[in-house]
Structure formats: C-alpha cells, structure tokens
Amino acid sequence: MNIIHYNSDYRIENSTFKIGKKASELIEKFHRSADGLTLKNWKALSEILDYAAAAEQTIAEQKEYITNLESLAATDMLTGLLNRQGFENEISQAIARARRYEETSLFAFIDLDDFKQINDNYGHNAGDAILKQVGVVINNSIRQTDASARLSGDEFGILLNKCDIHKGKERAGYIRHNLRKIIINYDGNELHTSASMGFAIIGQSSTLKDVFDTADQAMYQNKRDRKKTKNKYHLT
Predict the structure, then answer these.
(1) What is the CATH number of the domain that holds 200?
(2) Which domain holds residue 159?
(3) pLDDT digit string (tens) for 33-77?
(4) Closest among 159, 156, 139, 172 to 93, alpha carbons compared
(5) 43 and 98 belong to one structural domain
(6) Annotated active-site positions, please?
C-alpha cells in the first residue's frame, strides 16, 4: 500500500501553500483511517486543497482590492493627503478617544491667503503646483500619529493627536512658518503663499460639527485680524 506522508506544506504551481487548519485535520484523519492516505484518496483530497488554495488566494486579492478602494476613496488625488471624508473619520476617532481615554487633540484649520489671485493670474496649473507643495510641507511637518487633509480647494486640515492647545498652536505656528517659505518657479515667476489658521480643541464633549464650525470661525477671524494688521502696516 502506498502511503503519502502528511506534510502541512502543500505545493501548488511551483509555490508552497500553507494549508489551513481544517485541511490539516482532514489529512490527519485520513492517516488515522484503516487505509491511510493512499494514492487513491490523495487525488480527491488534492482537488479539495487546490480549490481551497484558489479560494484563499481570491479572498486575499479581494480584501486587498477593497482596502485599496477604501484608501483611494479617502485620499485627495492632487496632494496625496486625506480628503474631507477621510479626515472627518480621523476627527471622529479622536472624539471617541477623548471620551474613552480623556485624550485632548487639536484641529488646525488652514486657508491659504489670496490663493484665488494665483489661479486668476497664472492659471490652475500654477495653483495646483502650490497646492501640491503645501501638501508636501504639511505632511513633512506632522508626526506619524497625526493626520492631514486637503478639505476643499485651498483649505487644509491638521489633526494633532494627544496635544493641548498651547503645544498645538506652537506646532501649528511652525507649520505656518514653513508654508511661508514655499517658492514655486512657474513660467519665470516666483509664486509664494501664506496661510490663516483657526483652532478647535477636541475633548469629551466635542461633536464633529462643533469641531469644524469652531475651527472655521477662528480661521476667518485670524484672516480678518491679519488683514487689518497688514493694512495698518502699509498705511504707516
């Protein structure tokens, strides 16, 4: 009688497939039977393993495909940062952590100054070049535990996790300083940018709407204050 010895590595198409627990148990069951794992019943079992291997590969590919789709759905294609949908999910998770672990996080809402003039004077390709570089600067200025997004147009968001308002504003000031240093050479022109910022603390009583509304209002107040200061400076 030809007995096939049990081996948990099943070779298929020149690659080794690690069979699952159920298949391993099935092979062991054959070994314990009166006939053992003979060539006759190995053929039937091998067909089962072929199907199991193909099914597992298909499931793995489908999971990877779904993960990629979810990632694309949450990503801004121009900058590579999160889009608003993806960022709102990050904010919601920060709110959940605040309620469960009493963590404090900070949302910084960023709006580029006079961005419309760049699009009007130099075209949307020039504007896109600025937006891409803003995305690079923001992404390089935060920790891996933080999150950043292009929310819409020339509006960006930064989530600083486990960060109080004082440290958060200090870090945001560093980011704004880096944004001012951006210089894009476009058709012989040097394009610059600056940004206005507003903040919202994420705590136990926060809601998604309140966080965005608070940061939005603070950002526009910051923009108005900076314009007043700028106008006063030019008048004197």
Answers:
(1) 3.30.70.270
(2) 84-235
(3) 545 555 556 666 667 767 667 767 766 666 665 555 445 578 999
(4) 159
(5) no
(6) 154
